[in-house]
Prior knowledge:
There is one protein chain. With 343 residues, the protein is of the alpha+beta class. It contains eight helices and 22 strands. The strands form six sheets. The protein has an eight-stranded antiparallel β-sheet with strand order 15-22-21-20-19-18-17-16. It has a three-stranded antiparallel β-sheet with strand order 3-7-8.
Amino acid sequence: MKTIKYLLMFVAVVVFISCQDEEILVIQDITQNLTAKSPLASLISRVSQNPTSKDNILDKSSCFNVQLPVSVIVNKKQITVSSQNDYKVVQNALDAFSNDDDVVNFVYPITIQFQNFKTELISNPDQLEDVIDNCDDDDGFDEIDCLQINYPIKINIYNADNQIANTITIQNDKDLYNFLKDTKSNVFISINYPVSITNFKGQNVIITNNSNFESSIEDGIKDCNTNSGSAGNQNFAAILTNGTWHVSYYFDDKDETLNYKGYNFTFNSNGTIMVVKEKNTIAGNWSTFVNSGQNIFLLKFDDSRLDELKDEWKITEFTSTNVRLKNKNASDGATDYLYFTKN
């Protein structure tokens, strides 16, 4: 009830504070509120982050990219990488021999740049290895770099702990990415629509609400033809039936992930599911099909404890270790989210 009270207060009024003036801003739609864990916030972060995956042929890490130009040595051959086009030259050098070690050695020093746009000068291989060891686990969902958010945009903020509300103006990708990254779990945010993005065709697209924003970015993931959460040529069923999985995120009006803590899912190639929690086993069935051009993942279970997961889920993205699903509720139009992560 306390959270609902705060949300209603946030919807009623937000005080806009800047260094020049103050004004009252009315937020009319409570469904437009976001938290740092919201799927849309994650998608926007991937659009606004510093691109770090395109040079993985050099550094084998999506934690950072190596700033160009840089010189590398491959199979005793020195290559100057001046632009992204030269990544193919490096790839060709790696593929030239079948009995080599396929190692890219940098000519130091090099400068790396992280997803949050911070840079670091690297002087030797040991220092680079330390950086890689300290990187977070890679979930496989890379930047979405063929979409551009057009700035400035305004974001309304409400802190549920101290009941302070204000609005900030974001001027660039760096500020937006770091704002979302630093937003605490007790903070609710709301984008001040309309905003616009430029799509991969160079067209200006007007965004009017969260659902519109999410759909536009998801369309961009397919259109970009990048590493953004696609599993390449890997088959969804082959990935799903390899290993066991757990629910890493479930949202139905609110975050209910903890309801599925301890449940481990095995998806068998014959379409059956075995779910184990401690000494309890639950059976189920899964299948996939295409509906109106959308890839659908159907889940059924024999136990009421998993009733909320029984549905026809749209497959939005998947990698070899993560599956992201969503479903629009026919009764109220709200969107539910279900993420599986491999154990």
